[in-house]
Amino acid sequence: MSSVEILSEHRTFGGTLRYCRHAAAATGVPMRFSLFLPDGPGPFPMVTWLSGLTCTEENFTAKANAYGAASDLEIAILAPDTSPRGEGVADDPGYDLGQGAGFYVDATQAPWKPHFQMETYIVRDLLEAVGAAFPVHAGRRGIMGHSMGGHGALTLALRHPNLFKTVSAFAPIASPTRCPWGRKAFEAYLGADERRWREHDAALLIEAGVAKGRFDDILVEQGLADNFLAEQLKPELLEQAAKAAGQKLTVRRQPGYDHSYFFIATFIADHLAWHAAKLRR
Ligand SMILES: N[C@@H](CCC(=O)N[C@@H](CSC=O)C(=O)NCC(=O)O)C(=O)O
């Protein structure tokens, strides 16, 4: 179990936002995360937010406008970095691979394998470290994310039964095996055998019935002015998969909204309320 170092602490919306660092066995390098806790003894239900390409643990804290709602709803929000970082950690000149683009999978291929173990990092090291250091409820966890992080939220929830009770996503990469961002990352991290890719594809997992009996609904928010919608995101693939599997999935399409945190900030309170209501049951 790793200990958590608090790097800074900020009062906000009647709660406390902390930036933290801890040693993580999976990635082999120190990892950073942010955690918002409402005031009070807890233990609080906790929603984990997974950010998208190019993000750190700071994009959500600065831009999502989430903490007023989180305070009112008395839920914690955990937001990790999107990859291992630092000297000695592999990288790529592209914004969509390497540092800042971990895709929430465990890499099996060189040069990524030694540190890019983001799935195990999130579901084991991060949740254990936060659970040991802060008053959060292990049985009341939700997960959500944006774009690459929407793919991460959906696939981690689907692949790890009993870890998360609720899952939602903003403009998620619905089917990474069928879009350029996903295909590039999966080939690099998981290798050329596309059968391994399918295990990390939210639409294919839903179609295979993995969500049935576990999630009474899955909520997806999608802006219709999102530049990445047609080529990278494809929410219709989630809808087709859910229909085929008899899984309830709600896609809310929002005219005029783009891919940015302005879109996220507009609808984050709705998602937090949706998670909070289910996590309280
Ligand atoms: N820089 C790239 C696009 C990068 C981008 O849009 N990143 C999004 C997530 S995209 C999918 O995972 C993001 O959240 N950026 C951070 C922010 O604060 O907005 C390009 O130029 O196309």
TrEMBL record:
<keyword id="KW-0719">Serine esterase</keyword>
<dbReference type="InterPro" id="IPR000801">
    <property type="entry name" value="Esterase-like"/>
</dbReference>
<feature type="active site" description="Charge relay system">
    <location>
        <position position="259"/>
    </location>
</feature>
<keyword id="KW-0378">Hydrolase</keyword>
<dbReference type="GO" id="GO:0046294">
    <property type="term" value="P:formaldehyde catabolic process"/>
</dbReference>
<dbReference type="GO" id="GO:0052689">
    <property type="term" value="F:carboxylic ester hydrolase activity"/>
</dbReference>
<comment type="similarity">
    <text>Belongs to the esterase D family.</text>
</comment>
<feature type="active site" description="Charge relay system">
    <location>
        <position position="226"/>
    </location>
</feature>
<feature type="active site" description="Charge relay system">
    <location>
        <position position="147"/>
    </location>
</feature>
<dbReference type="GO" id="GO:0005829">
    <property type="term" value="C:cytosol"/>
</dbReference>
<protein>
    <recommendedName>
        <fullName>S-formylglutathione hydrolase</fullName>
        <ecNumber>3.1.2.12</ecNumber>
    </recommendedName>
</protein>
<dbReference type="InterPro" id="IPR014186">
    <property type="entry name" value="S-formylglutathione_hydrol"/>
</dbReference>
<dbReference type="Pfam" id="PF00756">
    <property type="entry name" value="Esterase"/>
</dbReference>
<dbReference type="GO" id="GO:0018738">
    <property type="term" value="F:S-formylglutathione hydrolase activity"/>
</dbReference>
<dbReference type="InterPro" id="IPR029058">
    <property type="entry name" value="AB_hydrolase_fold"/>
</dbReference>
<comment type="function">
    <text>Serine hydrolase involved in the detoxification of formaldehyde.</text>
</comment>
